[in-house]
UniProtKB/TrEMBL annotation:
CDD domains: cupin_CucA-like (cd20291). It comes from the Bacteria. It comes from Pseudocalidococcus azoricus BACA0444. This is Cupin domain-containing protein. Gene3D superfamilies: Jelly Rolls.
Length: 267
């Protein structure tokens, strides 16, 4: 008899605690919903460039530019376990838009303003990362000189749009986009048939790291090379990093190209 009462008490206790946890999570999501956006168009191109990256991402990638603005955009498919190791960009500012959520993005609070001083033990020193388990259509913004990376921790392939907006410090690249299309085109495997994917070679995997600085990136070769710890307490100041004006300018530029506006070049 006593045993049953103990079990019932324990069960009620567990139910109450999980109820409180679920309620608090929902309440906090309702109070601080992540910044999200419904749709991001792709420039309509006849033969878009498709690349299998050394981080195992399938990219359809394009670059657009006007007189004073340039960016590269990709719609990516990220297979289970796919995604780049932590890295730092110097020439571009990056937007992540995981349509279905589920991808885990890592971000530093610390900045690494000097490209010749990467976050290694020997140079600027490693740093802590904070992870955010993304919600569907959430926008995560990462200005240049912060460290970030991401992974698909699930067992299904998940989509993500990434946009790399040229920063004013960037040198001029072929597509006037800050260099990310040029980087992936140089170090990735070009896809001619989506049903018959190429294999990424060891040389391409090495180039992903060794060639990165040419394109304004310090790319780590393994998970903890730049990282001391990973916390799931994503700080509020990082969640607040947003740049809707620039994201809207990207969308307007793509829409203008798709509506035949000759002042926009995409390729
Ligand atoms: Cu990045």
């Amino acid at each position: 008899m006593l045993k049953i009462r103990t079990w019932v008490t324990a069960l009620v206790f567990v139910l109450v605690i999980s109820g409180v946890v679920i309620f608090q999570t929902q309440a906090s999501l309702a109070k601080n919903p992540p910044y999200s956006i419904d749709n991001i168009p792709m420039p309509k191109l006849e033969n878009p460039l498709r690349i299998l990256t050394p981080a195992n991402e399938i990219f359809e990638i394009a670059s657009c530019s006007t007189k004073d603005f340039g960016f590269a955009i990709t719609t990516a498919q990220i297979p289970p376990g796919g995604g780049p190791m932590p890295h730092v960009h110097y020439y571009i500012n990056e937007f992540f838009w995981p349509q279905k959520g589920g991808l885990e993005i890592f971000h530093s609070e610390r900045k690494f303003p000097d490209m010749s001083n990467p976050p290694t033990v020997e140079a600027a020193g490693r740093a802590a990362l904070y992870s955010v388990e993304t919600q569907p259509k959430q926008v995560v913004y990462s200005p240049h000189t912060f460290m970030h990376g991401f992974v698909n921790p699930t067992t299904e392939t998940l989509p993500m749009v990434m946009i790399w907006v040229r920063d004013e410090v960037a040198p001029d690249f072929e597509y006037h986009d800050g260099g990310m299309r040029e980087y992936f085109s140089a170090v990735g495997a070009h896809i001619t048939d989506l049903n018959n994917l190429p294999t990424v070679t060891d040389a391409q995997r090495n180039a992903f790291v060794s060639q990165a600085p040419k394109f304004g990136i310090n790319q780590s070769a393994f998970m903890m090379q730049y990282v001391t710890s990973i916390s799931d307490k994503f700080p509020k100041n990082l969640a607040k990093l947003q740049n809707p004006q620039t994201l809207n300018k990207v969308i307007e530029t793509i829409n203008a190209f798709n509506n035949d506006d000759k002042s926009v070049t995409c390729g």
